[in-house]
Write a structure and sequence with these properties.
Blueprint (H helix, E strand, L loop, with lengths): L2 H27 L2 H21 L7 H21 L3 H23 L4 H9 L5 H31 L2 H37 L1
């Protein structure tokens, strides 16, 4: 990947993380159609960057799908001059993550197991069972997060939508990461003590 590809990748990752804030502040300074066009251009550039990285790029199809969904919601907003479609994008992202995590439960290894094997290639059967449980917990989180994101998109003010999807949902995600880390360390210590 060249320097331009790395820049596009970083910009697109930042857009996904700060998407609600980008939409909120973007609409204060830009027309809805201009903002929608910018999002479309960035999503298409991301797809081009993914495809140019070759077929071995990790999670290539999922990233292309996320960019494709962004194009659809931005194009809908452009055509109807409405922010409603843009507000639904976090719901689609939670839905995509739910599908990825839940499918990995039926077609192992789970996503959490794959991540765990990056630091522990020889993961024990107990470790595999633990990662499966953690994957289930994340599935529940994505269901709840998607439901709240949908509620804020359909029933809440733009400010509430931005606060939840651009700040609080990340805080909850960080909290879940932290709790899981503490539990994992406790499980590891317990396993060592009982051996």
């Amino acid at each position: 990947m060249g320097p331009m590809g790395a820049v596009i990748k970083a910009v697109f990752a930042a857009i996904l993380l700060a998407y609600p804030l980008l939409v909120y502040f973007g609409l204060n300074y830009l027309d809805i159609r201009v903002l929608a066009l910018l999002l479309i251009v960035l999503a298409i550039a991301r797809v081009v960057g993914i495809l140019s990285a070759g077929p071995s790029a990790p999670m290539q199809s999922q990233m292309i799908f996320a960019a494709f969904v962004l194009v659809i919601v931005a194009m809908t907003s452009f055509l109807f001059e409405s922010i409603d479609a843009l507000r639904l994008y976090p719901v689609f992202v939670s839905g995509l993550l739910l599908v990825l995590f839940s499918v990995s439960l039926f077609y192992p290894p789970t996503i959490i197991e794959k991540l765990a094997r990056l630091s522990e290639p020889d993961l024990s059967p107990e470790g595999v069972a633990y990662t499966r449980k953690v994957t289930m917990v994340w599935c529940v989180f994505f269901v709840l997060n998607g439901a709240v994101a949908l509620y804020t998109a359909l029933e809440s003010s733009f400010e509430v939508w931005t606060f939840y999807n651009g700040f609080l949902s990340y805080l909850l995600m960080g909290g879940l990461f932290s709790i899981e880390y503490v539990v994992r360390q406790w499980v590891k210590r317990r396993r060592v003590m009982t051996q």
